[in-house]
Amino acid sequence: MAIKGIVFHWTAGRYDQTFSDYHYNVTFEPQSGRANIVKTCSSDDDKKHHTWNRNNERIGISLCCAYQATSANLGNYPPTDAQIEAAAALAGKLAHIYSIKEDEIKTHAEWAFVDGYGPGSGDPETRWDLWIPNWKGKGKNLSQVIRDKSLWYKEQFKGHTEDHNELFAPKTINLANHGEVYLPSIVKTVMEAHLVTSDEPGMNGSWPTSFEDRITSHYNHSEAATGHKMRRAEPWCPSNEGGSNEFGQGSSVKPPAVAEAWYMCMYWKNPPLPGTKMIMRNPANGKTVVAAAGYEIGPGSPQDCLAGACEEIHHYLGTKHTGKIEIGFAKDQSLPYGPLEIKN
Asked: 122 with 173, same domain?
């Protein structure tokens, strides 16, 4: 049977309740902030009874949420960002595999509108799954939000979730300027400037006197320490920013050269220990690096960018300033910094 569509639902149950009416259930763990995909089919082409009149050749993905929800109050089990992101990533992967078109990625509420039992129809079997106008005050219906995310994942898909559980240690963090964020997530990432290293040649404990002072020596030092050859162009980090007083000064101890060459940052409320290993991956091409966190806090702007990465990381991944990168804590903290070859 050829698969032609995806239908998003909610279960109208609690976060840990799954139902076999759907091909996939997306549960949620409130303590960890983690969403999990639970497969409840033997094959994607199993016929499930999830959407009246629309079950043939369509995959049902349901967020485990919305227990006792009403249009006025979503209750104690509203859809979570982690569930929405996980469901969209799964849908994007499936849409990529089965070449599913945009008009076949819908919520149950949207199909209910088409078939006469959507919100406002008066039908006793009205279905309004994920039909939430002005989701989080951003002007879009949640049905459109989850479809847009799915289409983005479809376009970018390449190795995004294949070894997800092998590489990442899921964790919810607090950012000083954005609240709680579930990692791993794909976020916009700025291009960061350079930090003075703990073994910086020619510094003798001093600091640069300008953005460019002795920066060429630093470039050479980074290349020698990592073997990564590229045309480096970023200056030292500015002084008097993020609590630093000197050019090239981070928010923590000076990193060793091999860590500075692969460093990343977020606007941590509670920064990780210096040298904490992070996984950074370009979802468009699958290229992956092990990055060093805990040496710097930022970025301060643009406001929609949640992370920063040094130019070596952007160069290797093939991303640019404010590009989207998948970021999470490395499950294996013994991994060396730098490019990580993923074996399929």
From this structure: no
Note down the domain range covering 22.
Answer: 5-156
Assigned domain for 344 exists: no
CATH code of the domain covering residue 178? 2.40.40.10
Q: Tell which of 156, 178, 207 closes a domain.
A: 156
d(CA 280, CA 186): 9
What are the tokens at 47?
């016929």
Q: State the CATH number of the domain containing residue 20.
A: 3.40.80
Smallest CA-to-CA distance from 10 within 132, 141, 129, 146 is with: 129
Same domain membership, residue 201 and residue 147: no
Tokens representing 207 are 């600091």
| 224 is a domain residue | yes
Q: Across 109-196, where does the E strand assignment appear?
A: 168-169, 171-175, 179-183, 185-192
Burial 322-339 (b: 16+ CB within 10 A, else e): ebbbbbbbbeeeeeebbb
Report how many domains make up the chain: 2
Q: In 3D, which of 137, 142, 113 has the Cα closest to residue 127?
A: 113
What string of pLDDT tens digits covers the 344 residues of the chain?
579 999 999 999 999 999 999 999 999 999 988 899 999 998 898 999 999 999 999 999 999 999 999 999 999 999 999 999 999 989 988 888 788 999 999 999 999 999 999 999 999 999 999 999 999 999 999 999 999 999 988 876 544 444 555 788 888 888 876 677 778 887 889 999 999 999 999 888 889 999 999 999 999 999 999 999 999 999 999 987 656 789 999 887 899 999 999 999 998 889 999 999 999 998 778 899 999 999 999 887 777 788 999 999 999 999 999 988 889 999 999 999 999 987 65
Question: In whole angstroms, how far apart are CA 249 and each of 74, 198, 296?
Answer: 46, 11, 9
